[in-house]
Amino acid sequence: MVINNEWSSYKEDNVDSAQFVKETLLNDNWWMKVDYILAFTTPIYDVLRKTDTDMATLHLVYEMWDSMIENVKKVIYHHERKTEAEYSSFFEVIKLILIDRWTKSSTSLHCLAHSLNPRYYSHEWLSEDSHRVAPHLDKELTQERKKCFIRYFDDVAVRREVNIAFANFSDGREGFDDADSLNDRGQMDAKSWWIVHGVHAPTLQKIALKLLGQPCSSSCCERNWSTYSFIHSLKRNKMTPKRAEDLVFVHSNLRLLSRNSSHYKEEETKLWDIAGDDFSLDDNGILDIASLSLDEPELEIIFFNEDE
């Protein structure tokens, strides 16, 4: 573009800016910096792309996140020509940003799902990196897993039974010690593994099948954005951001609480979570969404006015 003869016509408006753009685009050092930026942000982009899908990735996020930080570190250290033991101020800044984002976005379910993935106990996975340890030996994973079990199982006796089942699973013993069970850990899909080998721990198997089938997508956020667009609209655009956020919070929680009432199942509010702005009960509209689940990203919130 800048070496084209027509580029000279842009100089009439601002000669200095046009010259700066031309010099920059023709500078090899500038393109090397662009390549460097793309190189260390590619692992971050790849994780975002892999997780924001309808595929089951909840049990993969924790490991992908750790690998992503290591891949970013490799690119930066290679560019700065530093050994692993040396300090990089630039990498530390990037690392702090990533950890801050992870702290805001992660939940205990990420750790529990990671702990129930048999692949992370396999010899193949552990031998890929000397720094890797099995989930039951990781302090953070253990703490978060305990939080989930305490919240999920109120009964102490049931929770003790689940803890024993997890101990047997993680250590490969009492039902999980046969050759096929141990060999399939690193070779078989996690959910398939639990279907085939998890019969000896039915309660833990039930939880594992639920978590190992869960996606990590932004659909829940998108529903909140949809609600926000109705509350803070052209007609109501003088609200402060704090008030709008509070109204979205109240609305979303009222919608969740309404699911426990008889009105939700029997009266018109049973349609509250179905479809979107264009939803209609005319013709066959109800059949188009009858088979969908409330957790599917295609569904949005429907609003009914007083006339309806």
Number of strands: 0
Globally, the shape reads flat
**Biggest β-sheet: count, sense, barrel?**
none
Derived from helix and strand composition plus strand pairing, the structural class reads mainly alpha
Write the layout of secondary structure elements.
Elements: H1 15-25, H2 28-51, H3 61-80, H4 89-105, H5 108-115, H6 123-127, H7 139-152, H8 156-171, H9 179-183, H10 190-197, H11 202-211, H12 219-231, H13 241-258, H14 262-266, H15 285-289
Helix pairs in contact: 2-3, 3-4, 5-7, 12-13
Describe this protein's structure.
The protein has helices at 15-25, 28-51, 61-80, 89-105, 108-115, 123-127, 139-152, 156-171, 179-183, 190-197, 202-211, 219-231, 241-258, 262-266, 285-289. The chain is mostly helical and 308 residues long. It has 2 domains: 29-211, no CATH class; 219-289. Helix 5 packs across helix 7 (139-152). The radius of gyration is 26 Å and the shape is flat. The protein starts with 14 loop residues before the first helix and ends in a 19-residue tail after the last helix.
What brief labels describe this structure?
mainly alpha; 308 residues; 0% strand; 15 helices; 58% helix
Summary, kept brief:
The protein contains 15 helices and no strands. With 308 residues, it is an all-alpha fold.
